[in-house]
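tmp note - D-alanyl-D-alanine dipeptidase
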Amino acid sequence: MPLVEIKPPAFPVLLDLRYATADNLTGAPIYSRPACFLNTEAADLLRKAIALSGQMDLQLKVFDAFRPTEAAWALWNHDPNPDFLADPRKGSPHSRGAAVDVTLVDQDGEELDMGTGFDAFTPLAFHGCLEITPEQQANRALLLGIMTAAGWDFYRNEWWHYQLFQPRRYPLLSDVAAGSSMMSPASQRAVSS
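out:
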């Protein structure tokens, strides 16, 4: 299944691909190459979300999209928390190119305050959390409105996570199968062994 690379200028988003850096829950890079991909259906919905946010003088920032199965295993092995990570044996919408992790950025390039950072594995990250400020709730509602109006489904435990409806109709993809070259050869061998 072909994946679409998400990058400007074709996709006017900001890229902050956390799993290609040490700024993620593991404290170490997961991807050896920073790249962002989605399957074609998800890429089309992302275009709609970009257009909707642009009409409000906002921009989307992408933290993660396609996540090769090798990366899903690396995250699961670090923190096998089913409230926030999909068990790689069952597969994640990310590993199908059918999910994106995003936030909103204003005209000054500042992220809107969502009450927690990306990958905050805490109930404070839940969409329905009432323990954050009204402004933070409004910012989450704005992101939720943009993404759902563009056709995305959401995951209730993570304000940043959006996915296609029925993502399991797409196959799980490894780095090799997707041709994304995001993982190091050692991580590819570790999962295939």
